[in-house]
Amino acid sequence: MNLFFIQRREIITGMLREAILWKCISSMKHCIQNWQKVIDVVAERIRSIGHYSQGRLKDFIELTNLLEPDYTTDQKSQLQNLLEDHETISRYLRKDIPVFNDEYHDIGNADLLTDLLKSHEKWAWFIRSYLS
After folding, report:
1. Domain boundaries, position 27
2. Are 41 and 112 in contact (CB under 8 A)?
3. CA dist., res. 44 & res. 30, Å (int)
4. Are 120 and 90 in contact (CB under 8 A)?
5. Which long-range contacts (CB under 8 A, 24 or more apart) does 124-127 make?
6. d(CA 42, CA 61)
7. What is the CATH number of the domain that holds 115?
8. Which residues, other chains included, contact 6 with Cβ-Cβ below 8 Å and sequence gap of 6+?
9. For each of the chain's 132 residues, which pLDDT tens digit applies?
10. What does the alpha-carbon distance between residue 74 and residue 128 come to, in Å, rounded to a whole number?
11. Short-list 64, 85, 67, CA closest to 22
């Protein structure tokens, strides 16, 4: 399976969780708009290189490397779960960037993954700051 598709599904799964959680600590409209842009950029990139992206939640869940914790209404637990998702996605992105850059010589996708990594690192930092 293409590593690019794997990253996209993880991002989408994390975004769904974020859309629910950030209602508690941020403007829902702002978060949705931000992640809609990310989804669009990734989906457009996938199409521009001749592939189709996953479109169903069921497909994202089946392909994800993220853990789906038990349901909780505890805000701190929700934020900890979200932090773990951002950290997991960041770990995978860190491993995949050199693969795209060095092995595939695909600077475009490596650059996109680098931008996604920066975003996930920033959100992880923000959540860590909030939790401490």
Report:
1. 3-131
2. yes
3. 21
4. yes
5. 124/83, 124/86, 124/87, 124/90, 127/79, 127/82, 127/83, 127/86
6. 17
7. 1.20.1260.10
8. 63, 65, 92
9. 555 555 555 665 565 565 545 544 555 566 667 778 888 888 888 888 888 888 787 887 787 888 888 998 998 998 899 899 999 999 999 999 999 999 999 999 999 999 999 988 988 998 898 888
10. 16
11. 85
Q: Specify the amino acid at residue 121.
A: E
Give me the amino acid identity at 86. Answer: H
Reported residue count of the chain is 132
Q: Could you give the residue ranges of the DSSP H alpha helices within 1-132?
A: 3-25, 28-48, 57-63, 75-98, 107-131
Instruction: Quote the number of domains for the chain.
Output: 1
Cα–Cα distances in angstroms (integers) from residue 72 to residues 19, 21, 50, 51, in the given order: 15, 11, 40, 37
